[in-house]
């Protein structure tokens, strides 16, 4: 399983990479903004993406829309603060499959990713 | 059976199979017997014909005899006789042994041998009679036969005619009887078959009606269980269709929760519209769409549910807005892969939410009250009661001035001045009792009034902030009252300390107290700290000079020590929930022995044994081994050791290690003793006892620690 | 309830009179009332408040005031029902604007209009309510805010 991490926070990126690397995913890319994320998704062909919503250059929703066009089957987990539920729901409608609220624990993250991958393999 | 698992339909299939089998059996038997009866009918006809044929032969024989004498004999008569005799012969033979004969229409017909014994008997007897008659006929019909043969034939005919007729009659009757019995058999078979089919049908009926009724009962019982659940559950349970409509089957609790008579069929969002914000409503619709129409992970989007805490407001009675909190949880109901409905669980979480709110409020309140408690504990209860009563009427007085609606610049000016006067007195009283936070609040009101005074366009509505502050003061008083009541109850229940002398306004005004206060303020300012010093007890001017000097010297050291080492920075104190200003409380009183007791307490961080251990090690007061084995008590005692300071570098106030050792020297020099009480993070309390001036034996100082 | 929030209510009322009648309402000196002795005029529109803060806000006015307002806005029908409607409309204006101005801490109910001076309005007993007197065209009305 190839993982792409999209978040403008360096700390969050490395936290996710550490946790999901240990969980057995192969981290194939890190992106700090939406534009970079789309490019990396095209090149690295990830199976799973963790996606922040508020980022410079291109916001998460736009980014999800673009990535969906490139990789229709990719599983996207939105990782964002709960400040704006409406935006998060919008992101899910654009094609993300799950939502994880910041701040999160490693356990919560791996649980969420596990849930996401399980479904992807079943269907 | 048939290699197919028929399951619960096995009995039904077997029954229907049997039913068809019975019907088919009846049909086949019916066919067989019917055809037999048809054959029998033919045979009966032929038997009847035999009667006719016997008569015809007799008649023909007689006619042949009669025309024997005529010159024109009818040539047809011999042929007729021959045919009748031949037909009779063939038919008789066919009856006896089975074989072919001709029907009435001249067509050949095959007859089965008659099995019936009685019939065979008749046939045998017939044959016996017929055979000679036949012979005679053959002789008479032979070409060239004479008249005597004809006469013999006629004689035979006359002899046998009646006999043959009787026998053939007998045969016909017998055969009719056989046919009738077969028809009877057929009826029996039909009755039997129909009966079996009917019985089978009844069995099917009983069996399946039983089955159906059992199934109905099970369904009914299942339905009743569902009904019972829906009727009794405290949760609001219902299905939501993709148009957000509530299903007709819902728990009874739902109606009460939503405050609507008939939730079934209603649109959930319409029901929520009046009670939630538009934004929540929009988000809710989006969220429901998400679950209904998008491929997301149910578990992973639950945190986005905007209806996990919905406040419902209802007017139960005029002016009473009853408010409840509902939590809606949504689960997908799937048929195959398609989401058809959402199962919604609504819970009333009002109690939980209120508990949370109450907890939060009470935490805030207790934090406030703790700081107030510290102030209040120092105040004499009687003085406090007097103050509270006075303060109450002061606030009422202010409110009365506000309530008087006289307009105009002068009236407003008078109002401001009136309120100001009352406030000023109240502030003085509060400060006098050491109720600094209350005094501060009254001071803010004064400031507000001063600002109002400046306004040239003064109007009634400008008093709004004043009214708000007055109300806040009412609340302050109430809070103080409640704390005082509780403290009184506590004091009554447990005797903690001997009651302390009142820190009355008079004592606060004493000159030496002012000096201590100035000294404390000075040090505090240098260290960017904030302190308040309160004093209770006697005027130390009444002590003898030596005692007085010792007390003053010791207190000065304690003040310095407390501010430098004990009192935290205002920020840190806030974090710890303490008032920003450190509280130094000093009491001096005479004891029964004529000596003097001094109590000095600060509400700072207490004594850190770890820091002492480190400092003692650095300054060489303790060897490394000793430093690690020393008890807290031993370590605390070290603060009185010469050259001991936990301060890293010296400044005006501390760090030279000359302070508490000086205190010890002074106290011991007077023959007194020092006790220390401290709790880490909370306080440090020194109690010094000096003996009476007359009795001043030199005795070793003792340090007692209760930590 | 702090000064800001009180002022929101007062401003809403002032704006209402200003805009509808083109005549300003004069606000008297606010004071604290006793829960047992609050001003109640002929028509009283009560708005329940819940949420983090609980209690109620009510606007009470004599019939004459409401009648004059109606006449002033060109409504000749000053029957009782219309007066009650007006009181309700004023309360609706208050609750509608307040919903917009207050954060989610305040949940504001649909107003209930009561007739008659004998009515007793249920307010929390344990807090002194604010009474904000209001004078419009010589008539006296009041806004009472009782929120814990």
Description:
The complex is a heterotrimer of chains A (123), B (707) and C (148). Chain A is globular. Chain A has five helices and five strands. Chain A is 50% helix and 22% strand. In chain A, strands 2-1-3-4-5 form a five-stranded parallel β-sheet, sandwiched between helices. Chain A has helices at residues 10-23, 34-44, 60-70, 85-93, 106-122; strands at 2-6, 26-31, 48-51, 75-81, 98-102. In chain A, helix 1 (10-23) packs across helix 5 (106-122) and helix 2 (34-44) runs parallel beside helix 3 (60-70). The model of chain A has no long low-confidence stretch (mean pLDDT 87). Chain A has 123 residues and is α/β, with parallel strands linked by helices. Chain A has a single domain (2-122), classed as Response regulator (Rossmann fold), CATH 3.40.50.2300. Chain B is an alpha+beta fold and 707 residues long. Chain B has four domains: 7-207, Four Helix Bundle (Hemerythrin (Met), subunit A), CATH 1.20.120.1730; 236-348, Beta-Lactamase (2-Layer Sandwich); 358-493, HPT domain (Four Helix Bundle (Hemerythrin (Met), subunit A)); 505-706, 2-Layer Sandwich (Heat Shock Protein 90), CATH 3.30.565. Chain B has helices at 10-66, 76-97, 117-141, 147-232, 252-258, 268-272, 278-293, 298-301, 350-377, 381-403, 409-432, 436-454, 464-493, 505-508, 511-526, 545-566, 570-575, 609-618, 624-629, 632-637, 660-669; strands at residues 99-102, 108-111, 236-240, 310-317, 320-335, 338-348, 531-537, 582-590, 596-602, 673-679, 683-690, 703-706. Chain B has a six-stranded mixed β-sheet. A four-stranded antiparallel β-sheet of chain B has the order 3-6-5-4. In chain B, helix 2 packs antiparallel against helix 3, helix 9 packs across helix 13 (464-493) and helix 15 (511-526) packs parallel to helix 16. The longest helix of chain B has 86 residues, at 147-232. Chain B is rod-shaped, with a radius of gyration of 66 Å. The relative contact order of chain B is 0.04. Chain C is α+β, with helices and mostly antiparallel strands. Chain C has one domain (3-147): CheC-like (Chemotaxis protein chec, 3-Layer(aba) Sandwich), CATH 3.40.1550.10. Chain C is 34% helix and 29% strand. Chain C contains three helices and eight strands; from the N terminus they run H-E-E-E-E-H-H-E-E-E-E. In chain C, strands 1, 2, 3, 4, 5, 6, 7 and 8 form an eight-stranded antiparallel β-sheet that branches. In chain C, a hairpin with a 2-residue loop joins strand 7 and strand 8 (139-147). The radius of gyration of chain C is 14 Å and the shape is globular. The mean pLDDT of chain C is 84. The A-B interface holds A 77, 82, 85-86, 88-90, 92-93, 96-101, 112, 115-116, 119, 123 and B 279, 282-283, 286-287, 289-290, 294-297, 299-301, 303-304, 306, 337.
């Amino acid at each position: 399983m190839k993982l792409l991490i999209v978040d403008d926070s360096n700390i969050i990126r490395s936290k996710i990479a550490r946790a999901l690397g240990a969980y057995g995913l192969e981290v194939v890319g890190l992106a700090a903004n939406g534009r970079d994320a789309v490019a990396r998704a095209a090149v690295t062909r990830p199976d799973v993406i963790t996606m922040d919503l508020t980022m410079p250059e291109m916001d998460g929703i736009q980014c999800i829309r673009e990535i969906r066009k490139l990789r229709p089957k990719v599983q996207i987990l939105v990782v964002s603060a709960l400040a704006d539920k409406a935006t998060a729901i919008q992101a899910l409608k654009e094609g993300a499959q799950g939502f994880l609220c910041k701040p999160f624990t490693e356990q919560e993250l791996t649980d969420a990713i596990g849930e996401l991958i399980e479904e992807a393999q079943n269907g | 059976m048939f290699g197919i698992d028929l399951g619960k339909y096995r009995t039904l299939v077997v029954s229907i199979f049997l039913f068809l089998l019975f019907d088919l059996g009846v049909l086949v038997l019916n066919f067989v017997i019917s055809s037999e009866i048809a054959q029998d009918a033919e045979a009966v006809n032929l038997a009847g014909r035999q009667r006719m044929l016997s008569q015809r032969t007799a008649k023909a024989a007689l006619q042949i005899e009669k025309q024997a004498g005529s010159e024109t004999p009818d040539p047809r008569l011999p042929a007729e006789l021959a045919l009748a005799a031949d037909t009779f012969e063939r038919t008789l033979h066919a009856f006896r042994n089975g074989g072919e004969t001709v029907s009435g229409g001249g067509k050949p017909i095959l007859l089965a041998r008659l099995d019936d014994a009685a019939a065979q008997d008749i046939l045998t007897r017939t044959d016996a009679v017929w055979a000679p008659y036949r012979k005679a006929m053959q002789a008479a019909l032979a070409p060239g036969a004479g008249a005597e043969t004809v006469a013999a034939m006629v004689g035979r005919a006359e002899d046998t005619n009646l006999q043959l007729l009787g026998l053939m009659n007998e045969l016909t009757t017998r055969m009719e009887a056989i046919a009738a019995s077969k028809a009877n058999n057929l009826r029996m078979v039909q009755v039997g078959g129909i009966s079996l089919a009917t019985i089978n049908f009844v069995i099917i009926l009983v069996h399946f009606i039983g089955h159906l009724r059992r199934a109905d009962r099970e369904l009914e019982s299942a339905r009743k269980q569902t009904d019972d659940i829906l009727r009794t559950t405290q949760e609001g349970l219902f299905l939501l269709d993709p148009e957000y409509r509530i299903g007709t089957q819902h728990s009874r609790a739902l109606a009460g929760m939503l405050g609507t008579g008939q939730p079934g069929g209603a649109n959930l969002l319409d029901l929520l519209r009046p009670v939630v914000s538009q934004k929540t409503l929009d988000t809710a619709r989006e969220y429901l769409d998400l679950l209904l129409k998008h491929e997301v992970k149910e578990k992973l989007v639950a945190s986005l549910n905007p209806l996990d805490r919905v406040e419902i407001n209802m007017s139960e009675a005029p002016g009473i807005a009853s408010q409840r909190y509902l939590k809606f949880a949504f689960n997908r109901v799937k048929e195959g892969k398609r989401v058809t409905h959402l199962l919604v669980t609504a819970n009333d979480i009002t109690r939980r939410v209120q508990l949370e709110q109450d907890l939060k409020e009470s935490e805030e309140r207790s934090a406030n009250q703790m700081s107030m408690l510290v102030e209040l504990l120092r105040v004499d209860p009687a003085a406090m009661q007097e103050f509270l009563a006075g303060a109450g009427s002061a606030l009422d007085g202010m409110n009365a001035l506000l309530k008087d609606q006289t307009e105009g610049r002068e009236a407003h000016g008078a109002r401001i001045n009136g309120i100001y006067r009352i406030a000023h007195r109240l502030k003085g009283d509060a400060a006098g009792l050491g109720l600094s936070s209350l005094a501060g609040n009254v001071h803010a009101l004064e400031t507000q009034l001063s600002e109002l005074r400046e306004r040239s366009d003064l109007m009634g509505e400008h008093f709004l902030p004043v009214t708000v502050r007055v109300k806040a003061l009412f609340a302050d008083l109430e809070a103080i009252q409640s704390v005082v009541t509780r403290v009184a109850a506590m004091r009554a229940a447990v005797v903690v300390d001997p009651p302390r002398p009142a820190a009355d306004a008079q004592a606060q005004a004493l000159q030496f107290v002012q000096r201590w206060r100035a000294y404390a303020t000075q040090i505090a300012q240098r260290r960017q700290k904030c302190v308040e010093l309160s004093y209770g007890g006697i005027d130390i001017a009444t002590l003898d000079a030596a005692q007085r000097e010792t007390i003053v010297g010791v207190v000065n050291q304690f003040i310095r020590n407390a501010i430098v080492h004990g009192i935290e920075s205002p920020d840190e104190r806030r974090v710890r929930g303490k008032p920003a200003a450190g509280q130094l409380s000093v009491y001096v009183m005479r004891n029964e022995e004529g000596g003097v007791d001094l109590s000095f307490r600060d509400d700072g961080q207490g004594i850190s044994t770890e820091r002492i251990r480190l400092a003692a090690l650095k300054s060489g007061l303790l060897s490394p081994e000793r430093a690690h084995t020393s008890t807290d008590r031993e370590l605390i005692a070290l603060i009185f050791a010469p050259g001991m300071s936990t301060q890293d570098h010296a400044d005006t106030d501390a760090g030279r290690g000359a302070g508490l050792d000086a205190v010890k020297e002074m106290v011991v020099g007077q023959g007194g003793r020092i006790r220390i009480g401290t709790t880490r993070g909370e306080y440090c309390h020194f109690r010094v006892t000096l003996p009476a001036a007359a009795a001043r034996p030199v005795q070793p100082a003792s340090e007692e620690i209760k930590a | 309830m702090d000064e800001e929030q009180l002022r929101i209510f007062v401003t809403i009322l002032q704006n209402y009179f200003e805009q509808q009648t083109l005549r300003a309402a004069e606000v008297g000196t606010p004071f604290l009332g006793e829960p047992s002795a609050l001003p109640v005029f002929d028509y009283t529109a009560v708005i329940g408040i819940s949420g983090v803060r609980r209690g109620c806000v009510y606007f009470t006015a004599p019939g004459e005031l409401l009648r004059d307002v109606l006449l002033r806005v060109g409504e000749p029908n000053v029957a009782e029902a219309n007066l009650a409607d007006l009181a309700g409309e004023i309360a609706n204006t208050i609750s509608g604007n307040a919903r917009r101005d207050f954060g989610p801490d305040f949940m504001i109910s649909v107003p209930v209009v009561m007739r008659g001076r004998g009515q007793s309005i249920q307010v929390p007993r344990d807090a002194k309510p604010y009474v904000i007197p209001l004078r419009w065209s010589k008539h006296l009305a009041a806004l009472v805010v009782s929120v814990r």
